Amino acid sequence: MEFRLIDRIRERTAQGREDVRLGIGDDAALVAPPAGQEVAIAIDTMVEGVHFPQGIAPADIGWKSLAVNLSDLAAMGATPSWALLALTLPRQPVEQVQSFIDGYAEGFAQLAQSYRLALIGGDTTRGMLTVSVAVHGFVPPGQALTRAGARAGDVVLVTGTLGDAAAGLRLLQAGARVAEGDGRAAYLIERLHRPTPRVKAGLALRGRATACIDVSDGLLADLGHVCEASALGAEIDASLLPRSSMLLGAFDETMTRDLALSGGDDYELCFTVPPSLVAEVQGDLARLGCGATRIGRMVEGTGVRVRDEQGQWLETTHRGWDHFA
Ligand code: ADP
Ligand code: MG
User: At which positions is Mg(2+) 5 bound (predicted)?
Assistant: First the structure.
């Protein structure tokens, strides 16, 4: 049975790539990285009941489990190439397992195809529903974006909008069933289940961003990582936080601000660039469709400080993050 399952996955995720010499089916995959490139590697695990609620569509799990990994590659400025998939599946009737696999593979493949990413192997075991995806990507030597490297005076920007996914989670937790015609809730929940990894934005930032991270735990926490790695502080303006009209329509102003500051799961890129490059970078990311908004700047010191709409410093210290964890 295990083999049939693996065949189902292989058929549904088939992706021809020259550099895959041996894919699913042997004891290990064999790949040929392009000469002279560095390989960026990341892995992320999602456990049912922890990282996604019970009852979420298998296709959404497939999409998101790959998206969060592609987001890590995006934050490094790497071009995705290959993935491995470790699946832990509960003991269930075979039809149920098959329908999960089919849905999962469909969601995974939708995203994989748009990057010509090949699934080259994995592992399948029994236990609590857990999906672990590892990805590989290429980056020219020395050009990877990292969390270190920001300089005092650099401008802090973020792609897309913040807080949507956390808002979607709140709506789900409050028992919002996506009523027909409730486009707002549907949009926010879709942002939670089907995040868009900013891969092209990451590539466009190569050679220009001085530091970059993807926003998975919330802006305060993740920009905090950039501060630590770059041995600097950051000052941001709450009034500048990019928020979708759907978010603004669903919650009051203070709530949208807190969700944008502390809500996780957005998978936008937060990055720093020297002031002289801001306009050019914003133009390029606008053409890529996600846009980029300047939200503050890097300063000497430590930690992230947030100014409210009146110019007063907000009490933050990741309080919001705990609140939404
Ligand atoms: P082994 O016992 O040698 O580790 P497996 O029976 O676990 O081999 O796997 C057989 C082949 O199927 C391997 O190529 C492996 O990479 C692949 N594979 C197993 N599980 C998965 C999965 N969930 N997704 C993709 N490939 C898988
Ligand atoms: Mg083996």
Answer: 217
